[in-house]
Description:
- The chain has helices at about 1-10, 10-30, 35-60, 65-95.
- It is mainly alpha-helical.
Amino acid sequence: MNELIEFISDNLEITYILILAIFVGVEVIKNIPAVLHTPLMSGANALSGVVVVGAILVMLNSDPEDYLALTLGFIAVILGILNVVGGFAVTGRMLQMFKKKN
Length: 102
């Protein structure tokens, strides 16, 4: 617990930026109209891809005995892949709505 408090006190500016980014992100997401939600979600697939690559890099560079890092990396890979696949499925359905019907 002391290590956590020391880490936060050493990185106070970064902590403030993180908290501010969370508040700004919530406000931006909350004010997006429903019509724009699906196109923005397809753009977020790129971010999920970055999460997958980052999680794989964390797992590759972690100590084989560090089960916490390996477990969190594995969970991040699985959730990132699910998000990418789901985003592409929703984007595909959205694009089907704009095709002309015969």
